[in-house]
Structure formats: C-alpha cells, structure tokens
C-alpha cells in the first residue's frame, strides 16, 4: 500500500470519527458545552504555542488558555441563566489586567508583541467559540432557556458542505485563483460551487424545519440567508488562518488530528462563521 493511499485512508477515518463526535455532541446541551470547552482550551493551547515561536513574542501559555476556557464557561453560565449580570466576567477581566501588568516585570524582548498576540488569542478563539452558546441556548424571558441544536449543527453542516462543494467544483472547473497570495489552491469556481451546495442544503433544512406543525425560529428564506453568511465568513476564516500560518512560517497548526493537522486547521472557518451567524440572527430579531 502506497504512502499516499495510507494517508488518504487515515484522513478519511479521522474525518468520519470527527464528524460523528461533533454531531452526537452538538445535539445534546451538556455534551455540546463540554466538547466546545475542550476545543476552546485545546485551540488556545495550540495557538499560544505557535505564536511563541515568533521572535520577540512570549505569551503566557497556561494563563491565556485558562482565561479563554473561563470566558467560554462564563458565557455558557450567562446564556443558560445560571448567573445574571456582569459579575461572572470579573475573574476574566482581572486575568486580562494581570497579563498586561505582568509585562512590566518579565522584561520580554518586545512586550507590545506579547500583549497583541495575547489579546488576539482571546478575540480570535475564545470569543467565537463562546458564541456557540448563544446559537444553542435561546433565552425566552422569565428565566426560561430553550436548547436548539439545529442552529449550531447547521453552521458545521454548511461549513463541511462548503468545503466539499468547493473541492469538487474547484477540481473540475477551477481556473481563476480566489486569493493566490495566501491560498494558491482556492479558486472562484470552487467557492461558487461550494456556495451553491450550501444554499441548496440550507433551503432543504429550512423547508423541513418549518414543515407540518413545525415552526422554527428561522423561515426558509432566513435559513438560506444564514447559509450565505456562513459561506462568506467561513471562506474568510479559512483565509485568515492561512495568513496566520504563513506569517509564522508553518504548513499545519499542529498534528493532533491525523491527516487533518491541528485544532485551528479543523476549525479555522468556524472562527469567523460562528460570530457572523450570531450577528445575523440578532439582526433578524430586531428587524
């Protein structure tokens, strides 16, 4: 068996296990929060390890990871009405203050870079993953919270469909480079093909979510709009992570997932798609 075929088999098996874990976890509220808490911590740990390879950068890996994980937990507690008010974020704010003040005493080569990459990790990783709670847990007033697995699950269904459609259509028709400076393999034809597949799937989900006696938070046109948002921001998320890796000078963010690279490689698209989808849903609620 050739190495290429072995890598393909390993990649396929890893992908199947990954999707199975994601789907079975997202449909259950406790498993969803536990899974994305782990993902947040693992992604923060991976990210801080990567940026610490940059000359002049020294991010506190442990405290940054704990801070990101705590922020996820704080948003979870707030969203499910376990706590009320800003008080839950006080430990997080104090931790960020510590990370700023600590640079006065550490005598790092370039504290400005350390500050910047420390805060970037919180905004780039901890904040987006915490928004999964906003998608999954809908506050209805009077302290009532409902769990809607379809919204967070659909984000990843759209991202997976976009990747699959882009790969197939790009392989068959790709001629015009989408962003050659950052990702030479991506093409406009691939992106359009992936987008069309997502819009079709979004329409199907919207139809069945509102069929019969079922009435979902989103109508069928709004589901299609959500699919479009995920396609656009998911593509940007992929490119942003590619830019980060090019800046550091690496091919993969890690090797925790055989054949798929690191945590950031696997969730790069979602890091912009999740917060964008959250803003889209809130925009619909006030229109």
Automatic annotation (TrEMBL):
One of its GO terms (biological process) is CDP-diacylglycerol biosynthetic process. GO terms for cellular component: plasma membrane. It is found in: Cell membrane. It catalyses: a 1,2-diacyl-sn-glycero-3-phosphate + CTP + H(+) = a CDP-1,2-diacyl-sn-glycerol + diphosphate. InterPro entries: PC_trans. It is a multi-pass membrane protein. Its EC number is 2.7.7.41. It comes from the Bacteria. The keyword Cell membrane applies. Pathway: Phospholipid metabolism; CDP-diacylglycerol biosynthesis; CDP-diacylglycerol from sn-glycerol 3-phosphate: step 3/3; Lipid metabolism. This is Phosphatidate cytidylyltransferase. It comes from Prevotella veroralis F0319.
